[in-house]
Amino acid sequence: MGSIKIGALAAHFGRDVDRAVSKIETIIDSAKRDEIDLLVLPDASLGGYIDSLRNPDVSELPPTLDIDGPEISAIMAAAGDLTVCIGYTELSNGLRYNAAACVSGDGVLGSHRKVHQPLGESLAYAAGDRFEAFDTPVGRMGMLIDYDKTFPESARALALDGARIIAALSAWPASVTDRASSLPNDRQSRLFDLYDAARAAENQVVLVSSNQTGVMGSLRFLGQAKIVGPGGDVLAKTWSKGGLAVCDIDVDAEVDRARRVLHHLDERRVDAYRQEKS
């Protein structure tokens, strides 16, 4: 396939879905002018995130959308040849999910429902139950949402399913229990960067990490969007304010190079790993 251009967005998105669609269309148009091939938007881009992890206000939850509805369709129409990953709240069979869709002008390429739920998030969302990779114009990919990337098994499942790019969409806030005076010194700020690098390096994949910025209720989001190479090296990043991290990379060449001598997926010793107890 050769080199592709990847963009990871740090930006604020609130409850107003129509405004978000318009904003995203503008971002997509700019990305297309810059010849970006893959654009990863934050979790909850359409409708915003919950206002608290401890006690979310269930009367003011993010609006629910249908993956086949007009909002996602508008993103697909704007995307054209661009591959776009976007977060939203999905309603399915009466349940609300923190969800992500990967789309292009050809339709929905892949989807994911957040599996791991921190603190009181289960009061607002049901949990997903699987990690699956999918094929796109930029190669085989998978998606994680927020807390999913804390767990090595999440990214490993996608890598074992053939994903060479992992899009990690987040609405990741500063610590809610031990907040630092500045975001760069916050414990969650350090963990956010650590997980991005570790998940890329241990699976020898390219990880594209987006995040919300600004404030929603009691939550202050970190930003820190980035693109990480298969050796765990940060190739491009934003800081705590909004911005777009952009990088040109030949994904297959870099992944193959990382796996040439040490191939982590092939060299696992599954016979030595104890079966986990539920």
TrEMBL record:
MF annotations from Gene Ontology: hydrolase activity, acting on carbon-nitrogen (but not peptide) bonds, in linear amides
Which residue intervals define the domain CN hydrolase in the entry?
A: 4-251
* Pfam families named among the record's database cross-references: CN_hydrolase (PF00795)
Keywords noted in UniProt: Hydrolase
| Record has Transmembrane as a keyword | no
CDD domains hit by this protein: nitrilase
- The protein's name: Nitrilase
